[in-house]
Amino acid sequence: MLIILKHGAGQAEIASIVAEVERVGYRPHVSEGESTTLIGAIGKGPTPELLEHFRALPEVAEVIPISKPYKLASLEVQPKPSVISWPTGSTGGNAFMVAAGPCGVESREQILTAARFVKRHGAQMLRGGAFKPRTSPYSYQGMGREGLDLLVEARAETGLPVVTEVLSPEQVELVAEHADMLQIGARNAQNFALLQAVGETNKPVMLKRGMSMTLEEFLMSAEYVLSRGNLKVILVERGIRTFERATRFTLDVSAVPLLKSWTHLPVWIDPSHAAGKRDYVIPLALAGVAVGADGIIVETHPEPEKALSDAAQQLHEHEFALLMKKVRAILPAVGKEMVGGLELA
Questions:
Q1: Residue 209's closest CA among 253, 150, 264, 155?
Q2: Which residue numbers delimit the DAHP synthetase I/KDSA domain (predicted)?
Q3: Apex CA 339: angle with CA 333 and CA 105, to 5°?
Q4: How close are the terminal C-alpha atoms of the chain, in Å?
Q5: Same domain, 47 and 169
Q6: Which domain holds residue 59?
Q7: Does residue 59 sit in the same domain as residue 102?
Q8: DSSP secondary structure string, 58-108?
Q9: pTM, 2 dp
Q10: What is the CA radius of gyration of the chain?
Q11: Tens of pLDDT along the chain (345 residues)?
């Protein structure tokens, strides 16, 4: 349920309601606006008697049952967009971010070269997989711990925060020690033990939509992270599996405005995995920007033809530079801006 406090409620009144929410066995989530304070009471569905109990409290203006199965992700609990920030930029609200880099970390030279040029062209975050979940057990699986160390070195040189994938609950502590954001890939989007494990860290989580997930299922996966106390979650639409075979996946661009009408969480687009071919990456990325995405995560490689994974969809440096130029041209039209990500001198 959502408890709306009376106008002008102070910290003492807020603390009193929070204590009462906890007393009856619910978990409070406070959202303070300029004129109104909302307290979400998260737990099982409230009885009519419990609703009336809270309505009768002097500090309370109204109590509304939360209708969505996802509670903490819902706009009913937090009407204002969540904003997640790093020293290089922010995402959410009117703030837009770009994360870019190779699909997988392959060598020191490769990741440092990629980090330098994505920063030079304005990216605010470096992506790169140290652990790679592959369809075939014979495909490149990543460099593991050594790859994490190389990502740390790239961050130290460029100042770019790092996002990388974590594959299992057992890896969470190790990856969280090295990365600035933990990525949950499409194949793990309903790995509930993993979602709970990253929810217990203090690192932001990038959650990719499973290739066969409905949007409600997607938000319920985010709820697993949020329910463990980690409220910094970014949703990423990366394409879903349909009958179409011309692209690797079908990018559900409509998911962006729809999700933003349901949730306060930032919503990004991953055009690389949807396209499967670099020729389509820029148009799909721009489509995501045009419908209001809060960020994009793009694969780019110093020598894509030599990449050990997803070679066909990784952009050359000059293509990434063109993408960034076009993104900057569109952002003002949709009321967004990039903060940080300044080019190297």
A1: 253
A2: 92-328
A3: 110
A4: 52
A5: no
A6: 2-64
A7: no
A8: TTEEEEE---SS--TTBTTT--SPP-EEETTEEEBTTEEEEEEE-SB---H
A9: 0.87
A10: 21
A11: 889 898 888 899 999 999 999 999 998 988 776 667 889 898 888 899 999 999 999 999 989 888 788 888 999 888 899 999 999 999 999 999 999 999 999 999 999 999 999 999 999 999 999 997 766 665 667 789 999 999 999 999 999 999 999 999 999 999 999 999 999 999 999 999 999 999 999 999 999 999 999 999 999 999 999 988 898 999 999 999 999 998 999 999 999 999 999 999 999 999 999 999 999 999 999 999 999 999 999 999 999 999 999 999 999 999 999 999 999 999 999 999 998 654 443
Token pair in block for residue 206: 């990038």
- Within this chain, do residues 99 and 155 fall inside the same structural domain, yes or no? yes
**C-alpha to C-alpha distance for 120 and 160, rounded to whole angstroms:** 11
- 161 belongs to a structural domain: yes
Q: Residue 283: helix, strand or coil by DSSP?
A: helix
Nearest to 123 by CA among 83, 161, 85: 161
Considering the domain architecture, whether residues 221 and 261 belong to the same structural domain is answered as yes
Bridge partners of 337? 95
CB neighbour list of residue 170: distance below 8 Å, 6 or more residues apart:
none
Tell me the β-bridge partners of 165: 183
Which residue type does 159 have? G
Residue type, 313: Q
Residue 322 carries which side chain, given as an amino acid letter?
L
Q: Residue 205 CA to chain centroid, in angstroms?
A: 6
